[in-house]
Amino acid sequence: MTTINITFNGEARQVPGGCTLAELLETSGQPAASFASAVNGEFVARDARAQTLLAEGDAVFTFQAITGG
Amino acid sequence: MTTPTLSSFAAPRKGAQTPSGGLAGTDTFHIAGVELTSRFFLGTASYPSPQVLQQAIAASGAQVVTVGLKRQLAAGGGTQNDFFQLIRDSGARLLPNTAGCRSAREAITLSQMARELFGTNWIKLEVVGDEHTLQPDPFELVTAAAELVRDGFEVFPYCTDDLVSCQRLLDAGCRILMPWGAPIGSGQGLVNPYALRTLRARLPGVPLIVDAGIGSPADAVQAMELGYDAVLLNSAVAHARDPVQMARAFKLGIESGRLAYGAGIMAQQDMAVASTPVTGRPFIL
User: Is B99 in contact with A68 (Cβ distance < 8 A)?
Assistant: First the structure.
């Protein structure tokens, strides 16, 4: 099985080829609605995660709600 | 003879709502189609505990509170669920910010995330152009604002007090402006009242909110006396020795300043003007 190299919140990861964003995010163990996601600096809506295929070199980031000024 | 003074700028705008009903809070205004009775927008960062934050929100009477987003760590830690749940429970309307963004592209992405995460199309648009002053970048701000407005956002731009860049933000579709009083977290108050007066005079129909730099309730009073529609602050309350008491102090100051604006502040005079009516000179024999 082929693998691809990506980064997830700055950390290098190897994931199976054909892995979707939703599958990657499930590994974090967090409820899907508790964070927002972006791939290569572009927002990916919650509904689109399952259709978003990860590619070699992708940088995935997730963001959570915090206090703010 | 009277000379143009702060008071002549501060006279209520034609058609402006005049506060009434004392401090009972019957003074209402509209932001982005939402009716509000509090002119105090409160930031939620840097409080000593979730409980103090909760009490400060209650003491402030704020109906709008700002929140933020943070990139998660690889380890997935660092959550602020205690704080955030209390903010949600306060019932205040959320105004997410794009703090930390350095480009329009970053701010647009973060805004889209905020809309999904917080379930609101309101966004406090922050794009910093200078690391030392955290001064907003007017060019990136206009670029981001135009795209976000097209995408259905209600953009609250945190901007400088420069009139022309404010006009460009309005051209981009913003319906509200949030000029700074002073750099974020500096507590310097309104460092350029002339520029803020000019904005108020030149943009009479636009909701204007002084955001950032407020240090004491006196600064908030000044902003409201200038005819500003509301005040947004965070550090001045969160960093007070007693944030809850300070939240109430600001609440009263903002109400007081608004009432004074509506009442019409007397014109300053160069010389004394006797306030006690006298007939003749009774004590000179």
Answer: yes
pTM assigned to the model: 0.88
Whether residue A56 is predicted with pLDDT greater than 90 in this model: the reply is yes
SS3 B34: strand
Per-residue pLDDT tens over the stretch B5-53 = 333 334 444 334 444 434 444 789 999 999 999 999 999 999 999 999 9
Chain A nearest CA to B205, separation (Å): 26
Q: List the single residue in B with minimal CA-CA distance to A7.
A: B74
H or E stretch at B231: strand B230-233
Burial-class residue B190 by CB neighbours within 10 Å (0-12, 13-18, 19+): buried
Alpha carbon distance B62, B85 (integer Å): 17
Give the tokens for residue B147. 């795209």
A36: which 2 tokens? 């927002």
**CA-closest candidate to residue B111, choices B76, B145, B162:** B145
Cα–Cα separations (whole angstroms), residue B11 to B172, B185, B219: 29, 30, 18
Assess whether B124 carries a catalytic annotation.
yes
What per-residue confidence (pLDDT) applies to B75?
A: 62
Across the interface, do B76 and A8 touch by the CB < 8 Å criterion? no
Chain B environment of A30 (Cβ under 8 Å):
76
CB–CB of B155/B174 below 8 Å? yes
CB contact under 8 A, B43 and A45: no
Whether complex ipTM tops 0.90: yes
Q: Crossing angle, helix B104-118 and helix B138-150, to 10 degrees?
A: 40
- Which residue, among B246, B176, B163, has the nearest Cα to B211 in the 3D structure? B176
Which H or E run includes B220?
helix B217-225
- Rounded CA separation B109/B133 (Å): 24
SS3 of residue B149 by DSSP: helix
Could A63 and B87 be called an inter-chain contact, meaning their C-beta atoms sit closer than 8 Å?
A: no
Distance to chain A for B86, nearest Cα, Å:
10
Nearest by Cα to B265 from B4, B6, B3 = B6
Which chain B residue shows the shortest CA-CA distance from A9? B74
